[in-house]
Amino acid sequence: MITMLIVDDHPIVLEGTKNLFQENEDIIIDTESDATCVIQRIKNKPYDIYLIDINMPLENGINLARNIKAIQSNASVILYTGDDITDYYPLILERKIEGILAKTASKEQILRTVRAIANGEIVLPKNFL
Amino acid sequence: MRSKLFWPAIILYLIIGFYLNYVNYSEPYIQIGLEEENGRWVISQLYYKDWAEGQNISVGDAILTVDTEPINELKQLRYKSKILSANEITILKPDGDLINIHIKHLDIPQQFIYVLIIPACYYLLTLFVAFYLHFKQRNTKLADLLILFMLTVSLAYVSSGVSGRMDTIGIIVNRSSMLLCLVILLHFLRNYYSFVKTNWVFTNNIKLFYILPFIAFILGCVGTIYPASNDILSNVILAIFFILLVIILSILLISYFKYSSPQLKILLNSILIPFLPFLFLYALPKILFHTYILSSEISSLFLLLIPFSFIFTQLAERLFDIEYHITRLRYYVIFSLIFTVWFTVGLYLIAGHYLTMTVMSGVAFFTFASLVILFYVKEKVDYRKRKILFSTKGDYIHQLYTAVDKIGKTIKINELLEKFAYEVSMHLELEDVFVLTYNYDKNEFITNAGESITIDPDIMEEIRLGEIRKIDKVYIAFLHQDAHFKRALVLGHNNTIQLKDEELLWLELLLLYVNNFIENTKMVEELLEELKHMKQADDGQLPWLNKLLWLRFEEEKYQLAQELHDTNLQEQLHIAREVDVLVNAKNTTDIQEKLAKIHKQMVASLHELRTYCENLKPPLLDTLGLNAALEKLIRKVQGRANFALIYTIDRLYLEDERMNLMIYRLFQELLNNALKHSYAASVEIHLKEMNDGFEIIYKDDGVGCNVEDIIVAESMGIQGMQERVKAFNGQFAIDSNINEGMFIRIMVKEGSETLDYDAHSG
């Protein structure tokens, strides 16, 4: 059983992303569109994995990831962005996040990454090296 | 006591007084002591010795007739061996000469003045003052008592001469009025105490004391029936008189030492001081040295001042005023006296041989009087011309200071006016002080004028700046005026008011201050309002700038729309059409393959769109920071460039985050120029940290250009960079020549920019 919170300020993306996991009953999805509410929310109910959009107006995903890890050190964070993901690879090495996914990534890629990270593995694309 | 007693009292006073004065006038008072010797009445004592000498009357002469009647028929001689008054006497000198003497008032000036003229004058004066008090003072109970007191004192005085002649009515009037005047005084004091809110230390049952003068009246009647008892009776009356006097004085003394209020002090002084001449100049020397400095007639005249000194308590209800006048007079008198002594001594030393003592004392007195008058004249002139006043306490300035200080602490105008009125009422000891606000437009008063005081609107319209007017029973002082309202201060006090010059000046000054203060307060309020409006209208402050900005924004938007329309939109349209084809395709065998192709196209289109967005908003700048963003930019340029790009990027710690964007844009512009125009083999770009700022150095070995040309041509975005750097208070230096490459140095100090910003915002 994997619990996951998806944070994105665009409701349509949020809905689309959630739908990707519909058929996987072992992954339980919650969503949050307001980045500033996340910390308060996970104090009561922590998740295994956080899938977070980087470009959010009130708090960007990188800061949010840091804040989550500050109160929940075992949390796994996957950033999720429409930007060029190669810019963010260094964050994985700095152990600030566990993974990075492009919004254009396929369903299969996403599922694989989530499962791998849930298993404590790190999935890196080839062009990272 | 009610004012209906006034007219009966006056009529009684007139009748009795007329009679008494007539008796005094009818026969001169001569007072010749007699002794019976061998059946003849012989003169043993002469009271007016000068007169007797002049008329050749001497001790030992026998009196034959008085007023043409034989002396033996004079009734009074039975009880008193004296001739008290007579118009004509016949004496027999020891040598046998018969002398007939007609006595006229003027023959004996002393008796003429002290027995006839002064009592008569006092009588008339009292009458006038009584009328004055009655009509001026609106019949307060105190005034009535004072009038009665003065009338009885006057009667007692006038009757004293008459009773000396053993006149029946004179004796009765004299005895009753002596006691009556003290009882009335007691009554007056009791009421006066309650008027000035001081505790009355004696019994409140004053009416009981009115029995005493009644007893005196009865005793007087008894005395006329049994003339032999006169001496005893007069002693009884004197004893009661003395007891009453002691009671009154002790009341005053006790309450003065208990409460020591200025009113009591003056009251006490006004009773005690008239006694002093009698005590020190007559009674004490008489007892101690058997001689006197001032005769009893003269020294007792001072006692008659007592009723008049009480008038002050009525005329000026605010005893404060008397104190002011007394201290001022004392001040002037002391000054004048010192100078007079100085002057007289000088005069004596210089011209003492030629001048008699009489001339000297006359000159001294004249000098003294002139000086006192001079001081008063000077004071008037000073006030009229220069607004300078004699100040007894010297604290008017101080009080003005504290009043202004207290008033100045208020912020709102209404509060200010209230405090001002309070200060004025406290300082001037007035009861009704308030600020009247008059509305011009509606011609009506806004603040209630109070029930007791009504002000004519015309007066409000008339009164001008700096004016203090006395209207009827109140003063009205102009305070402030603006477009809609006129404010005035109204001062009233118990239906009677008289402000001194000093107080008026004080008030005038304070009014001026308050007027200015209101003006300033209003100005500050208006300024604040204006500032508020300005703040609200701040955006519209530079319409041309707004217009320019708006046009620029619109232009940008137009360009954006055009670009998106030309590129991404077309692609998306194409994809949509392809998908539509697939949706309606009948042959679904290779649909997967075709969809994958479309997906590829879409991702490509997305990438293009992302690049486009990244151009508009530099990526990473607000997530990973300036350095990451610059690194990414440089990697991108390196990917496209034909030149070798050498770069160093220091990590900057800038307070102003907007600087990051500027630096990024400068890099972007410089590198874009290098890509497009330089044709360089190698390009260097450096971002260096400096003390409170940064420096960007760009260097290439490309074709270069003429600097003037660039600036004129507005090409290459160099001008844009220059402007941006200037906007941040930086320095932009460019050095280039054709075929000699290009060197650009940009320096921005954060401190100077911040300072400048502060200066503007401050």
Automatic annotation (TrEMBL), chain B:
Catalytic activity reported: ATP + protein L-histidine = ADP + protein N-phospho-L-histidine
InterPro entries: HATPase_C_sf, HATPase_dom, Sensor_HK_TwoCompSys, Sig_transdc_His_kin_sub3_dim/P
Any one Gene Ontology molecular-function term assigned to this protein's record: kinase activity
Transmembrane domains' residue ranges: 5-22, 112-133, 145-163, 169-188, 208-226, 232-254, 266-284, 290-311, 331-351, 357-377
Membrane found in the keyword field: yes
Enzyme Commission number(s) from the entry: 2.7.13.3
Keywords: Kinase, Membrane, Transferase, Transmembrane, Transmembrane helix, Two-component regulatory system
All copies of domain Signal transduction histidine kinase subgroup 3 dimerisation and phosphoacceptor, residue ranges: 556-620
Highest taxon, organism lineage: Bacteria
Pfam family, one: HisKA_3
Domain (Histidine kinase/HSP90-like ATPase): residue spans on this chain: 663-749
The keyword Kinase belongs to this UniProt entry's keyword annotation: yes
Name of the molecule in the record: histidine kinase
Lineage, highest ranks first: Bacteria, Bacillati, Bacillota, Bacilli, Bacillales
